[in-house]
Structures are given as C-alpha cells and as structure tokens.
Amino acid sequence: MKADPQATERVLAFLEKAGGTVTEGDVAAGAGLDVANAKASLYDLMLRYECHLEVHEDGTLAYDFGRKLVSLTKRTWRDIVKSIGKWSWKIFSWVYKASLAVVLVAYTITFVVLILAAALAASAASEDEGPAEGAFRLVGHVFIAIFDFHTAQAITYVAEDRHGYKHRHYEPKKPVMRLRKGKPAPKSRSKKHQELEEHPKGFVASVYDFVLGPERVRPDDRAQTRELASFVRERGGALSIADVQALSGLTRDESETLFARFVAEFEGETDITDDGALIARFPELQRSRSTEHDEPIIWYWDEYEAPYEVTGNTVGKNILIAALAGFNLVCSLFMTVEFGVAGGLLGLLGVVPSVIFGLFFAIPAVRSLWVSRKNSEQHEHNIRKRLFRAIFKRSILDDDTSTLPIRRLAALANAAEDAEEMLDADKIRPLFEATMRDIGGDVDLHEEHDLVVNLDQLRAEIDGRRAQAAFVVGADEQSKHLAFSTERDHVSLTEYADVEKRIVGS
C-alpha cells in the first residue's frame, strides 16, 4: 500500500512528539489513522530516517526511531570534512597530473627524434605498415598516454598480499612501446601474474603512480542493496538481521538500520519466531521470471581488502623515475638560483619545475606514512573478516554450540584451506572483543575457556530465516512455527493449525 503524504506527515508529527519505541497500534491511535495507513506511513518514514525494528517481550513488533529523528541523508561535520578532503585531493591530483603532463610533453618533443628512431626500429619488422606510418602512430600513442590520467584499466584480477589474503586489483595500463621483452614469470604463478610480469605497467602510468599512488578497486555504493535482494530471491524470500551482517560486515546497530530500510524499500512483511527472532519476507522479490541480472552473492569474509600501495611500481622502475626526477629537480633549482624568481622566462623555467619535482618527492614521503597506517587498519579488517567467517560459516552450523571460546574461534579461523596467516588467540583478543561487540554477541569471561561469546541470538535469526524460507517454498513445513506475523493471510488459519499439530506431534 502506498503511503498518503498527509498521513505520513501526521505520523511524523506523532513520532516527534512521542519519541522512543512505538507499535503500529500506537501510531494508528496517536495519529488517528487506520492500521494500514499507519503501517504504510511508517515504511515511508523508514526510508527517510534511521529506524530499528525490535521485538517486544509480548511478541509484538516495534519501531524504534530514537528519541530524536535522524535523517538517513544527514551528514555530520566529520562526513563533510571527509568529503571536502576527498574532492580537494581529486582536484589537486588532476591539476598536478596536468602540470606533470606538460613537462612530459616537453620532454617528448625534446626527445622526439629518439622516439621516432625507436618507432622506426619497432615497425621495421611489421608487414602491414611502413616505418613512417608506424612511427607517427607510436608518437600519437605516447601523447595519448601522457594525457590519459587513469593509470589502470577497469579489468580486475586476483592478487595476494603479504599475509596471504587474496583481493581484487586493477590491471595496470600497458606500456605504449616495449624495447625489450619482460622476464618470463615462474610457472608457479597464476596465468594472470605471468601475463602482468611479461607485460609490465607503462612508464607514464608508473610516473603518475609514483607520486599519487595507484588506483584502488572501489565497490559500487548500491551493490550492497542489490546483493541483499539477490540473497532474498535465492534463499526462499526471507531475510534476517544476521544475514545482513554476514553479507555486509556492518555492526549490529548499522545492520538493524539497513535491515529496516530494506524492509521498507522492498515492501517486506515481518515475522517473529518462537525464539524472538525477527524475520522479514519479501513476496514481491520472489515474483520473477529470471535471475540472470541479479547481483552475485559474496559473503563479507570472501571480500578481503586490498593493501594500500605507495607507488605500485617495481623497485627498479621507482629507482629510474626517482633518478630522472632528481636530475630535473637539481637542474631546476640551479636555474632558480642562477636567474631568480623574477628572472623572466629563464627564471620561470627554474621555479615551475622546482615546485613540480619538489612535490614529486614530498607527496610520496607523506603518503608513505598514511599508507602504513591504512595498511594496519586493512590488516585488522581482514582478520575481522576471518572471525566473521568462523562465526557465521562454521560455528553457527554447529547445533551443539551455544557459546564459543576465543581459542576455539581462532582454531576455526585457522582451519580455512587458504594459505592465510595463522591467528594467535592471545594476540587477537582485543580485536575479538571489538568484533563480538560489532556482531552483537554477549562476551563473557569464563574461568575455563577465558573469553566466550554467546551465539544464541544469531543462531535463532539464521534458523528462523531458514525455517521461514523452507515453509514458504514448501520444503519443510514442520520447521516453521510463528508466534506473530504481520501478514497471516498468505496462508489460511486452518493450514497454520495443521502445521502446528504436526509440529507438536513430531
């Protein structure tokens, strides 16, 4: 049912006055609306404000918008400062690359004879084009490469960091001209790694990356929502907050907000199981003829973060670039000292390159400190993903496990088949506690097992979602037993009674 704008405004006014947690009945009575309009208005507001769906002790569904309504699009000062910094860096990067491109063009023109000579040599073996045509074509490609500020292609391949975590990496731009063939990669490497080593990154792209760093693979902002929709469609039309956590890696509080927004956005219906687990059903998402264009479902722990890189170049190429830049910096400083800042064209030829090549070394030096800090965070994030995997993929499947000791969790994380680093339970203790707080598990100090986490809530939510999906598709009716449902008319009360009789009798 589509929300009436006037009804939504009345519900908004009621929420601002009431504050805290409300039920659909509270809203209907307080705003003077029928229950259907109250629910539609609540769903509309869930798309605009932060909301958590909760289960009351009496088994009813409650909407928690907080004491004060918080807009989902509201930006904090921290967000604003971060956004300004991000755009400032983008603008500076573009301006710096443009100024550096002018210098590179100047060198290209200066050494055009060498480039043409190399082009003539390279095209001499070509049967399809003459030497002159090949030479001019290559010079054109060199100029295009200089003004192409993207140093990587949108094609990704799987790389591995020093801790053994596999991640996606952009394929770098290939060189315009190769004077010699690259060294063959060892046969133990993957085909993609062999190809990258035999066809290394282009020199112009390496120059830009030396200063500003290589491009990182960035996820699509809406990919998470599409992934949740794919999960619902593939897993019988049901979703729990634990599923949202397993797919996104968000904290419990953030997952509850995303769960509520997703329910409102896709017109979900909520159920509460005997164990107090909140499950959402999405009948509309199930109505489909094809899943061909659905987003691939990738668990949070299967998406390791890529390490941050200072340059992304080989040591040899960094030495070469640094030597050339150092030579230019010394010559530029000599011109500046000799002719001064107000020395006309000659003075300008000294000052401008001095600034450009001074930043050429200053920026990577500062970035290296930032990269070191970000890599520490990236390493912790990847360990956190392994803990998520051990909890959701392994321990949740064990029906006999009510509490999980930290040493058992480390053992489960180390049991993965991939060649990842071994985790020490004592060293990951602070991260374990932080991750458990994020997930929402109850962490206790146990005399025998040291730290343990209670998994009852997560298991109840996942089991409830599986039971709901099984009941909807008719795979296992006996596994479903609802205490409350927002829409029971999708199956008759007689059928519910029959199901309950079989459950009790089994």
Structure summary:
The protein is α+β, with helices and mostly antiparallel strands and 506 residues long. The protein contains 18 helices and 12 strands.
Q: Can you give keywords for this protein?
A:
single chain, 506 residues, alpha+beta, 4-stranded antiparallel β-sheet, 3-stranded antiparallel β-sheet, 18 helices, elongated
Describe this structure in words.
A hairpin with a 4-residue loop joins β7 (269-273) and β8 (278-281). It contains 18 helices and twelve strands. The two termini are 39 Å apart. Helix content is 55%, strand content 11%. The strands form four sheets. Strands 6-8-7-12 form a four-stranded antiparallel β-sheet. The chain has a three-stranded antiparallel β-sheet with strand order 1-3-2. α14 (344-394) packs across α15 (406-414). The longest helix has 51 residues, at 344-394.
Largest beta-sheet details: 4 strands, antiparallel
Number of strands: 12
Secondary structure tally, helices? 18
Order of helices and strands: HEHHEEHHHEEHHHEHHEEHHHEHHEEHEH
Q: SS-based structural class?
A: alpha+beta
Question: In whole angstroms, how far apart are the ends?
Answer: 39 Å
* Shape by Cα distribution: elongated
